[in-house]
Write a structure and sequence with these properties.
The chain contains 7 helices and no strands. The protein is 84% helix and 0% strand. The longest helix has 34 residues. It has one domain. The chain is an all-alpha fold and 175 residues long. The chain starts with a helix and ends in a 6-residue tail after the last helix.
């Protein structure tokens, strides 16, 4: 799951900085394929996790319950929010007739909902890994996940704000 999120983030950053339609098409195609791995990766993670819950830790352990909820949340974001938008970017890139991406395609790549979703997913996974290492009590676990979500929104805002400054100062890059 961590690798899938890393490759998805790399694909999205590459689309964001692509200067031609072909590269957006290539990177969005990879992103669509990778995003389809999230349900499988969740299953691969959850089966041994449930075994450990039933055999060792039990359901009374707060960090496990919070981490499980966060894991299910990331699994929801992938196919429900991201995949539809990534397929829209791919379809728009395939429909482009010009080498230079249109404003409509650039706007799809810069979709704030998509960027927030992927960034929050990334930070939730970091939060889960943190909880696995530190094993905080209930309120500490909730605070960790709240900070992860806030960091995800902040990261998306930073990336989109940074690229917005680049494209506005270089009008030749896009139509």
């Amino acid at each position: 799951m961590v690798m899938a999120i890393a490759i998805l983030a790399l694909s999205m950053l590459s689309m964001l900085h692509a200067k031609d339609t072909e590269n957006i098409k290539r990177w969005s195609g990879l992103a669509v394929k990778i995003d389809g791995l999230f349900p499988l990766s969740t299953l691969i993670i959850i089966v041994p996790a449930l075994y450990l819950v039933f055999s060792t830790w039990g359901w009374g352990t707060s960090w496990i319950n919070v981490s499980l909820a966060a894991l299910l949340g990331t699994s929801f974001l992938g196919p429900v929010i991201n995949l539809r938008r990534l397929k829209g970017i791919l379809a728009a890139a395939e429909a482009e007739t010009d080498d230079i991406p249109s404003i409509d395609l650039i706007n799809k790549v810069r979709d704030g909902v998509l960027w927030n979703s992927v960034s929050v997913m990334s930070m939730l996974v970091v939060g889960i890994l943190f909880l696995m290492a530190v094993k905080l009590a209930f309120f500490g676990s909730l605070i960790t996940m709240a900070l992860a979500v806030a960091a995800g929104f902040g990261m998306a805002s930073f990336v989109l704000g940074k690229t917005g400054q680049e494209t506005s100062s270089n009008p030749v890059s896009f139509r």
